Amino acid sequence: MKLKETTDEAAAKEGINAEEFKEIKKNSEELLENADKMIKAAENNAQKDVAIYASKFLNAHSKTVDGYNIISAKK
């Protein structure tokens, strides 16, 4: 099942803390949003914006992976 389509209730059934799940979901949405912005900036040859969104992308990626690792370690 896709993260975007997963409900809090479904996550809870898997033993995932609701707050941790919401944080991962939020971070993954930021990850996708920044990836889209980075690609658009690259298509427009806006190097400064590419760097900004690449940094934001990597930050959101780290947060998403960290959240996933926390949940995985608890299982």
How would you characterize the overall build of this protein?
- The protein is mainly α.
- It has one domain (8-74).
- The protein has three helices and no strands.
- α2 (18-43) packs antiparallel against α3.
- The protein starts with 7 loop residues before the first helix and ends with a helix.
- The mean pLDDT is 88.
Descriptive terms for the model:
75 residues, mainly alpha, 3 helices, 80% helix, elongated
Give the tally of β-strands: 0
State the end-to-end distance. Answer: 18 Å
- The 3D shape can be described as elongated
Radius of gyration: 15 Å
| Whole-number tally of structural domains | 1
Integer average pLDDT: 88
Number of helices: 3
Quick one: biggest sheet? none
Q: Give the fraction of residues assigned to helices.
A: over 70%
User: What portion of residues belong to β-strands?
Assistant: under 5%
Q: Strand-and-helix sequence, N→C? A: HHH
Judged by helices, strands and strand pairing, the structural class is mainly alpha
Low-confidence stretches: none
